[in-house]
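User: We ran a pulldown and think these components assemble together. Before we commit to crystallization trials, I'd like a predicted model of the whole complex to look at. Sequences follow.
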Amino acid sequence: MSDKNGNTSQESEGSSRQLIIALAGNPNAGKTTLFNALTGSHQKVSNYPGNTVERIEGVWKLKETDLHLIDLPGLYNLDTTSDDQTVARKVLQGEYEGLPKPDAVIAVVDATNLKRNLYLVTELLECKIPLVIALTMFDDAEKKKIRIEIDSLSKLLNTPVVAVTASTKRGLEELEERVLAALHTTAQIPSGINAITEKDGDAQAIARNDFTRGVVQECVTRSKSSELSGSDRIDRILTNRFLGLPILLAIVFLIFLIVFSVADLPMQFTEYGFFALGQFIENALPRDTLFRQMLIDGIIAGVGGIVVFVWQIALLFLFISILEDVGYLARATFLLDRIMRAFGLNGKAFMPLFSSFACAIPGIMATRTIGDKKDRLITIIIAPFMSCSARIPVYILLIPLMGLSAIAGALTIVAMYLLGIIVAILVAFALKRTALKAPLPPLVMELPPYRLPNAKSVLINIWKNVRMFLVRAGTVIFAISIILWALQTFPSRDFSVPEMVMMGVAVFLIATFMLKRVMNLFSSKRVSIKPLPSRNSAVSWWRKPVWRSETRLVAIVIIVWGLVAYIPIYASGRWNEPNIEPTPEEQREKVKTSLAGELGRIFGPAVRPLGIGVSNGNDGGERGDVMRGEIGFALIASFAAREVFVSAWKMSSLGSEDADPDPPLVAWNNYWENLGTSWRNLYHGNFDELTKGKDEDKSLQDTIAKNNFTPLNALTLMVFFVLAMQCASTLAVVWRETNSWWLPIAMFFGMTVLAYAAAFLTYQGGRLLGFA
Amino acid sequence: MDHEKISTLADLPIGVEAEVTGILGDDPLIRRRLIVMGIVPGEKIRITKTAPLGDPLEIRVNDFNNSLMVRRTEAQAVGVRYER
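Assistant: Here's a predicted model for the assembly, 856 residues in total across the polymer chains.
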């Protein structure tokens, strides 16, 4: 298919260059809904080179042709200096390498807000690209008694105008035809626009405004209604001077409650799923080898531990997407702007920080919506202080060890959350005053009318975030799990030399690949923009670009390792020989003599100032050393992922890990039973029953109590966990999102030092107050 | 007795309709943003409510359907004239 200039082939494959259509329009005009309707789930999200603006593109299948559709950021204008606008200008002028000037532009215009939307249209008309206007929200306009003469509008702007309703697909066919027609024309600038370009600066902007006012006067008739719109009536309560903030807090609290309680059941199913996978491997490979252990204790345990949080993330984003679609997030910004400004935060940081309570990874990715670079950096830096889901297992383990009453225990958890929030505010405040000082970007923002959420958009948004979480967290955790497991196993005398060699090779490869990614950031090679694969292409999933050769190499090494481990066993007929199960004592010894155990012992003295293992003022002698070694080991393990602390501590002190997860049916019954019991206890005021810890942790608690682990120790450790950076996946995401290698390193060291200092103060303060 | 008052949007009493006389202030970014959103000389404008802490303001520009929010500091860049 040739474009208007008769150009056909450009790519080496001999196919003609894929035609590019840009989608532009105001935020809230229905641009993204239209984009989703045209591309389905065939979208890709990435970054524009050099900044953090989200790059959203997809494939629009238009009558046998695949068009490359670019969803430009929502904009009101193109003529100032924000990142969004700069990116849009560059795209429209074809200034990005590999992304030629678009062949047509679809301007999405909200029929209920024509005048404001047309400002951008006047700028688009100057770009000399064929334009088609998609007029959305037509039914809403009719309900508001706004009548638009489409023909008149089209004539005044010299541009085809099509009324579309993305949700019902009405008008999409006509849009397709108009776009096809537009691709074969050259753009013509309507007469009124020339007068605008002759002016400068503010005068030009005001001239644009006059032009749009003229157009609207010609084409739009409104019956003035002085009664409040539905949205206004809702806002009388939701942005009420007195009720607004309490309602916001209630909504936030409710969302947390629902997310964390509802996600629990699918989480248990997922845990069981991974456990079943492990059982399957144990049955398929009956003989225990290093390889089998790597699969079960390394990969499955590691990856499973992170994947299990996907439910909380999905649920949280369900609520966030609904709130955004409905229009409530704008009201939240209205209510919170003053407070967040006082803390040095941008109003748009609310949503990313809120998401970080489930997991900092999607939260940090969500900071892309914060236009201002410095504000975004601050938000990224403080996001990990919002206590994420992974810290909860640690809190649940440590709170019972404090021996408090039920209510005090609950209050302590709340205090931990608050601690994170307060520290975050202080850090943001300090940064804003010093290193990241910058003038505040203007707020002037629309409060869109309340709308029903669009189911498709919400689902696509959830999927986008879940997928990014699984890919980002998954790949990092996969690599780190193998390395950590190796640390905990090496040096093991029980297994064959060839296996040890394979383990070394695998670890070496993974470490090298990770290092290579870090080194890549030093090079100035810019990522070029490739055209998207056509929708019809039956590309096998293993040939898709996401599977890079490094992954294949690691996969090959793992397969070879498996063969090296099991072929000799099979050959010597020992396949079904029973394994010698180590006793818990032996397990503990293995942990202690492993590399990780050694590291734990080396780190042990470091936690002495935090009071671990200390009794009666002296350092507890050998028992204290043992305790410190165990905790040191668990702490090291937890720097990859926080929840690993629990199983690692159990491993090093008891020689066994968590109890097996319940099968789905048992989990289902227990869940509803517990829920019913909890509500009944709440109803009757039996708070003690509510916070009783799980029985399987009792053995750990007994052992720990015998070793001088005091309530103050528990509190100190918790404080440490609130503030420390113990998530390799988060660091990886920060690295990807900011394209800098020093920021993750700085965050790691900064937060760990902060956590240590806070834990130290907690312990010493507790001692002074007589709690030791 | 009616007389005309000239001041900025920031000082406009809530609910009183005024006419925009000019876009002032040193910050070109704020000025441009205000114009883009439709706050230009000649438009009728009024404050419909304020946020819990008095800032930002929710305003309505007469030809538009959607309300806007602006900070007080930004509202100071909008000169207005109203009857009192």
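Chain B has a mean pLDDT of 86. That may be worth checking against your pulldown data before setting up trials.

User: Thanks, that helps.
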